[in-house]
Task: structure prediction
Amino acid sequence: MTTQASAPPTTKSQALRSYDVADFPALTGLEEEWRFTPLKRLRGLTGDGSGSPRGTVRHEHDDLPEGVTVDRIASDDPRVGSVLTPFDRVSALAHGEADGALLVQVARDAVVATPVRLRAVGEDAGAPAFGHTFVEVGRFAEVTVVLEHVGSATLADNVEVTVADGAKLTLVTVADWADDAVQAQHLKVKLGRDAKVVHVQVSLGGDLVRQHTTVEYTQRGGEAELYGLYFADSGQHLEHRQLVDHTVPDCRSNVGYRGALQGDDAHTVWVGDVLIRAEATGTDTYEINRNLLLSDGARADSVPNLEIETGEIAGAGHASATGRFDDEQLFYLMARGIPEGEARRLVVRGFFAEMINKIPVEELRERLGDAIEARLTKAGA
Result:
């Protein structure tokens, strides 16, 4: 089923969207959306999905708080595909090949004090796996949902999120894969009137992780805060893309991503797209990406983009910065008797502190801080 014609797009709003993988041509790496991605390392996630063995990714969850349910639904459930229409070949392949979807429901008016913790556990990176998750937050509900990805997998998955009128969702996604894992994920959030989402995206593990997040506003008053932190080690490719699509008046968005890189061929990509359509008057938006290079041989690509179709906005801006350690910070710490290695670790911890503190789960904050510390210690920083 194709929902939009396949003419060459001139803006993000005109890109091809289809549930059928056959509507998307085979990838060559020359496409603008894929020019940073090493396609050969995606293994079987760019093919037609037919006739090949399947890998396994299973889901686990902690005890569920009152007002929250987790179930499986069939692929033909009307909710599947109601938020996210695939806009590239990998997402369309995942849509067609996933065996049903994991459904996470938060009841209307439920104020859930305990975080909902879910894990996707990969068991085999040797064969492609396909997944689908649907998160449904009822009207006026408030909840924190944590989705962690661990183990070995070659996974293409779609995540659909609806946040109903007046609801508030904090969504934390963590890619803490084993070293051999590959993931290409599309996540889309649809916001109702006066709804709010805070999404914190963490990428540490995996050989290649490519995550694309989209926000769509359906009525006035929607708010989206998208934060991310990533740390690429030798040989890792971590790629994050966002599209914040302002389609209605008087909505807000704020995007802030921070990354660190160390080691030969460590590569990160951040592409932040904000589209303000002609009817989206009163929009207030800002996006920023900062990258810290900890060694030679690492590369960070950072591309902020704004498409503005109306002059009647409250504000719009973007910024990007990539650099090495601040020598003044190091000098300040070392002048007070702190050894250089420890001083460097303190600077990196401070660099990430703002993003880590966005996570409202203390145990997870501490674990991520320890993981970053271990990576720095391993490298001798």
